[in-house]
Specification:
Glutaredoxin, 3 helices
């Protein structure tokens, strides 16, 4: 995962995945591990990671309701969001489904 610090960098992403978290969120730590494992699988795209505390405009524009949140972007628009990080296979299925929808 690529950890970015500046919110303006988010708005340069046209397509891909952005993972939002907060440092004190216990569930976010588990979700981060799921994503770290998922990234090692074939065909998994690079995931951008950002602390939601520093992404106020993105949170409003993309209607982020809670963390952890994995946002799928396609052509600059939010395609879908994942909030429930139940398992690595579930996260992988979400990523694969979003990639298929973009094809």
């Amino acid at each position: 995962m690529i950890d970015i610090q500046r919110e303006d960098e988010l708005f340069k992403i046209s397509s891909g995945f952005v993972y939002f978290y907060t440092p004190m969120c216990g569930t976010c730590k588990l979700a981060n591990e799921f994503l770290r494992i998922t990234e090692h699988l074939d065909q998994t795209p690079q995931i951008i990671k950002m602390d939601l505390n520093f992404a106020n405009q993105a949170a409003m524009d993309w209607q982020i309701q809670s963390v952890p949140c994995l946002v799928s972007l396609y052509e600059g628009e939010v395609q879908d969001k994942l909030y429930a990080f139940k398992s690595v296979p579930d996260v992988t299925a979400f990523i694969n489904r979003m990639q298929e929808d973009q094809s």
